[in-house]
Amino acid sequence: MHQSLWVEMLARIQFAFIAGFHILWPPVTIGLSVALFVLEALWLKTGKVFYYRQVRFWSRLFLLNFAVGVVSGIPMEFAFGDNWAPLSRFGGGFLGNLLGFEAVLAFMLEAAFLGLMVFGWGVVGRRMHLLATGMVMFGSILSAFWIMAANSWMQTPAGVRLLHHHLIITSYFKAIFNPDLPYGFFHMVIACLIMGATVLGGISAWYVRNRRFTDFFLPSLKYAAVALAILGPLQIFVGDSAGLHLADTQPAKLAAMEGRWRTNPPGRVASWVALCWPDPARQDNAWSLKIPRIGGLIITHHYRGGIKGLQAFPRRDQPPVLIPFYAFRAMVVCGFFLAATALWTLVVWYRSGLTLAQAPLSRHLLAAWYGMPLAAYLAIECGWFTREVGRQPWVIYGLLRTSQAVSHLPSIALVWSLTGFFVFYATIGSAALVFARRIILSGPDLESPIPDHTDAPILVARRR
Amino acid sequence: MLQAPSPNHELLAGIWFAIEGLFLIFYVVLDGFDLGIGVLSLFMRKDVRPQVMMSSISTVWDANETWLVVLGGTLFGAFPLVYALLLRALYIPVIAMLFGFIFRGVSFEYWELARRKSVWMWAFGLGSAVVAVSQGYILGGLLGGMNVVHGHFRGGLFAWFTGFATLVALGVVVGYVLLGTTYLIMKTENKVQAVLFPAAKVAAIALFIVAALITLLTPLRYEWAARRWLTVPGLFEFGLLPLVASLSFWRLFKALGQRRPYAPFAWTLGIFLSSFLGLGITIYPYIVPDTYTVTAAATGSETLIFMLAVVGLFIPIMIAYNAYLYVTFRGKTGAGGYQGP
Fold it and tell me: Are residues A33 and A394 in contact, defined by beta-carbon separation less than 8 angstroms?
């Protein structure tokens, strides 16, 4: 491979790796922070100790997850400068703004109130503590907003024009609220809420299935099932709308996701490609498994809808097909699995009169819940691979190519940094799994006294 | 950048240079003591290490580290050329710093859950040390200037690795240790505190020597610094700051000798503030010495105004969050840590 292609490929692998690792953690942070806030508010409202115990148990997993999310997020910010210096020079006037806003408006809020949330039990009052939890939740969602605004703008760069290869911002409003933002932001936030609910439900199901702390975890399983029964179908709807929107904004990505090389003009019925093996050299699929007549219906929601194929784009503007095609399908399968399992759980519950004590949940259903967090993780990863690989060969769609955006570092530097990230992330990731298992095995703390801030000494706190 | 720099643009760029300087000072002082405590933990007896070192900063380290995220994000927005150049040219120390942060950050959470706690104590100490050394080389590399041709970095992968940068790295590490030690003196009592006074003294002597060497060598080595220092108006301001720093050192030694709890940290702050203020006015009007001036490296005026409106509003708010955090967790770290309610 040519030296510069090799460097570009290594830089892309490194970014994909650190971003793919990082995105495992913040969705759990966001999802669980919402759950923690709701449970803590219920504690304050009802005074029931059960809710307090729930908050304390899930906080332990939340914090473990939060720590890895924080440390894996910092390399992301720096990657724009070190591996993608030309991208920073070209787009920094806008992208840098948004990362700066994220840090100033959201990140500091989250970080400062996290200290209070973790160590503030018994040090600050209950209302203040609830406020801290709320601020951590708000900060993490706000942070997602700025990141999605930056990423959406790279998908549909609006509010700017080019002047001698320099980016001039004509409207900040149009740039931040670019056409892709509503789809990107809501699709991601719902994914985060789903992620949190599957962690809550999956772990609760494990306890229930093993008959440990059943009274404690049946309610949380129920909350998760109700949340997912609403969020799952909602997410399918949002995702479908995002797909329709792609036909206007990034038709090449849509064609890659659907494995379509030839254009289907409006007014003609098209088949739908279920599976295929793309062959870019021949500009066609080597083989494909098609379902006749439903292509237009699925992709455009019109029986005779027109669909642009990849052949309509010059080769140098075509994205790779294999990854978006299969990643998209895997995401959809995971999404339907999540929604179906949640609805199935509600049906079983409804039939048994929604009583918790003798809920005759089948062991198979509970086992299916073990797969829920895995399906949610997989769906998020696959969704991002579809979104980012499908935007290629552009890094800022239509404005800057990925090949123009990469820092020309000596490849040896990239080999070492990539190896370092791989080894260190494997270390901290597997340690997090070991510790999560330990927290789960030790179960909730049902004995320790409830904190009362009035007579607690103000000292630097140790939690637990 | 395309239009000729208007006086307005020059002013805005100057304001942003000052804001980045403020964020840098916040970061260096606040995360500096965290990192210094981490480095110090490598040299402390095992039985005092876990309880005191970590619990004294576990409430604030995340907020402290966030100042670097703030600095990075706003630098990316206001001075994208500098952001791209520095991180690209200093690839090795930047990546090393990120690796150090990874281990420093997770160790707070992991050591409480781990059966073999010593592993994560080492991760905390070594991670902090790697971060401190890398930041020293980043600063040294910045002062050393960059080989830039047509906006592209043309220097080697190890261009930052010079004797002078090594001296700066040593200064940063020793400075952080001094900050960390004097911070711990405020947060501890009795036996633990007693060990810290001699440790602080050693760090202070080392920092004094290194800082004096850096101050002498900078104008000798770098022509841009000599130009700034040895002209008549420069002579006044540059004469004043070493004077303030020397006074702070003198008062620091006195306070350590009298075993006062709070004064050593305060005078260490005096040393840091005068050093970084000196650094700022030495570099100005450059932001990367001999390569980019502040005005030339800044992004367009409209972007600077837009960012200033948002970030400027939030600077006092961010300071307020942090102040509330520190006030809530004020006071001494108990002998066994706070056991919880």
Answer: no
pLDDT value for A363? 79
Q: If you average pLDDT over residues B287-304, what whole number do you get?
A: 88
Please answer yes or no on whether A74 and B151 come within 8 Å at the CB atom: no
In the stretch 204-233 of chain B, residues with CB closer than 8 A to chain A read: none
Domain map of chain A by residue range?
3-240+326-463
Domain containing residue B191: CATH number? 1.20.1630
Distance from C-alpha of B77 to C-alpha of B100, rounded to nearest angstrom: 25
Is B329–A118 a contact, with Cβ atoms under 8 angstroms apart? no
Q: How many domains does chain B have?
A: 1
Tokens of B90: 């200093």
CA A2, A5, A10, A13 torsion-angle sign: negative
Rounded (10°) angle between helices B61-78 and A85-101:
120
pLDDT over 60 (residue B84): yes
Q: At CA B71, angle to CA B68 and CA B72, rounded to 5?
A: 85
Q: Is residue B326 part of a domain?
A: no
Provide the domain limits for residue B48: 10-316
A25/B203 Cα distance (integer angstroms): 39
**AA letter at B233:** P
- Check whether the bond before B242 is cis (ω within 30° of 0): no
What does the DSSP 8-state code read for residue B338?
B
Q: Which of B56, B59, B71 to mutate to test the interface with A (most CBs of A within 10 A)?
A: B59
User: Whats the size of chain A, residue-wise?
Assistant: 464
Cα B108 to chain centroid distance, Å, stands at 21
The whole-number average pLDDT for the span A116-139 is: 91
CA distance A82 to A72: 16
DSSP H helical segments within B114-148, as ranges?
Answer: 117-143
ipTM over 0.85? The verdict is yes
- CA B206-B272-A114 angle, to 5 degrees, is 115
Q: Is the pLDDT at B235 greater than 70, yes or no?
A: no
Q: Where are the beta strands (DSSP E) in B164-262?
A: none
Structure-token pair, residue B38: 């981490």
